[in-house]
Design brief:
The protein is mainly alpha-helical and 309 residues long. Helices cover 77% and strands 4% of the residues. It is built from ten helices and five strands, in the order ββααβαααββααααα. α1 (24-51) crosses α10 (295-308), α3 (94-127) packs antiparallel against α8 and α7 (193-226) runs antiparallel to α8.
C-alpha cells in the first residue's frame, strides 16, 4: 500500500492502557484522581512559594518551576487519555499528536535540566555556605531557568522538524497512551535512519549531560558532608538535599525503566505502563516528597489554609 504523506494524515489512534470496556471506567477514575492530586499538590507548592516571603530563596524558586513542569508534563499526556476514555474513542488529530510530541519533549527535558540546576544549588549551599547568597543571586537563578527553558525549547523544535518529513502507511495505531516520537517513528514507512541517529544523539546529550552534572554535584556534596565532624551536622547537611535526591532517583529510575522495558520486551503495552511512572506517578509524588519533611513548606501551607479558613 502506498504510504500517506504526513500532510494527508488527519488522525492517529491511541491504544491506551486497556481495551477491556469493563476496566476503562476504573482506569478513568484512577487517572482522574491522580491527575487532580498532581494539579492540586503542585499548585499548592507554587502558591506557597510565591505567597510566603520566607520561601523567596533559590531552592524554592527552582522548586516552583519544577512543580510547573510537573503539571505541564502530566497535562500534556493525561488529559487527552481522560477525554478518550470518557468518550469511548481512541483517536487523536494530527495537530494534537504533533502538539503532544512538542510539549512532552519540552517539559520532560525542562524537568531534567531543572533537577540538574537544583543539584548545583545544593552543591553551592553545602560546599560554599558562606557565599551561597552571593553565588546564587536572583540574576543567576533567573538565567539558569531561562537557559534550561531555551535548551528544552530547542529540543522540542528539533523533534517537530523530525516529524515533518515522516510518511506513514495505512496503519496509524500508536501502541501507547500518548504520541511519543519513538512510537511515531515505528509507524513510518519512509527512511528513518537519520531520525533514529538524531533521536539517540539528543537523548544521550540531554539525559547524559544533566545526569553527569547531578552525579558530580552529589560526589562533591558527599565529600563535603563526610568532612563534617559531628553526626548531627552531617545529618542536617544531608537532609537539605534528601528530597531532591529522592526525586532524581524516581525520575531517572523511571526513564531507565522505560528504556529497559523497550529494549528487553517487545510488548509496547508494558512500555506504556512503565511510562505512566514519569508522566503521572512522579509528578503526583513530587509535592509530597518536598512537603512532608520540609517544615518551611508545611508552615507556609498551614498559613494559606488558615487564611482561607
Amino acid at each position: 500500500m502506498e504510504p500517506q504523506n504526513l500532510t494527508l494524515v488527519s488522525e492517529f489512534f491511541l491504544l491506551s492502557l486497556t481495551e477491556d470496556p469493563h476496566q476503562q471506567p476504573l482506569l478513568f477514575g484512577l487517572l482522574l484522581s491522580m491527575y487532580l492530586v498532581t494539579l492540586l499538590g503542585n499548585l499548592l507548592i507554587i502558591l506557597a512559594v510565591t505567597s510566603d516571603s520566607h520561601l523567596h530563596t533559590p531552592m524554592y524558586f527552582f522548586l516552583s518551576n519544577l512543580s510547573l513542569a510537573d503539571i505541564s508534563v502530566s497535562s500534556t499526556t493525561v488529559l487527552k487519555m481522560l477525554v478518550n476514555l470518557q468518550a469511548h474513542r481512541r483517536s487523536i488529530s494530527y495537530a494534537g499528536c504533533l502538539a503532544q510530541v512538542i510539549f512532552f519533549s519540552l517539559f520532560a527535558c525542562l524537568e531534567s535540566l531543572l533537577l540538574t540546576v537544583m543539584a548545583y544549588d545544593r552543591l553551592v549551599a553545602i560546599c560554599h555556605p558562606l557565599h551561597y547568597l552571593v553565588i546564587m543571586n536572583p540574576r543567576l537563578c533567573g538565567l539558569l531557568v531561562l537557559v534550561s527553558f531555551s535548551i528544552s525549547l530547542l529540543d522540542s523544535q528539533l523533534q517537530y522538524l523530525m516529524m515533518l518529513h515522516l510518511t506513514f502507511c495505512a496503519d496509524l495505531e500508536i501502541p501507547h497512551f500518548f504520541c511519543e516520537l519513538s512510537q511515531l517513528l515505528s509507524l513510518a514507512c519512509s527512511d528513518i535512519s537519520i531520525n533514529i541517529i538524531l533521536m539517540y544523539f539528543l537523548g544521550a546529550i540531554l539525559a547524559g549531560v544533566p545526569l553527569s552534572g547531578i552525579l558530580y554535584s552529589y560526589t562533591r556534596i558527599l565529600s563535603s558532608i563526610l568532612r563534617v565532624s559531628s553526626s548531627g551536622g552531617r545529618y542536617k547537611a544531608f537532609s537539605t538535599c534528601g528530597s531532591h535526591l529522592s526525586v532524581v532517583c524516581l525520575f531517572y529510575g523511571a526513564a531507565l525503566g522505560v528504556y529497559l522495558s523497550s529494549a528487553v520486551s517487545s510488548s509496547s503495552r508494558k512500555g506504556a505502563v512503565v511510562s505512566m511512572m514519569y508522566t503521572v506517578v512522579i509528578p503526583m509524588l513530587n509535592p509530597f516528597i518536598y512537603s512532608l519533611r520540609n517544615k518551611d513548606i508545611k508552615h507556609a501551607l498551614w498559613r494559606i489554609i488558615s487564611r482561607v479558613g
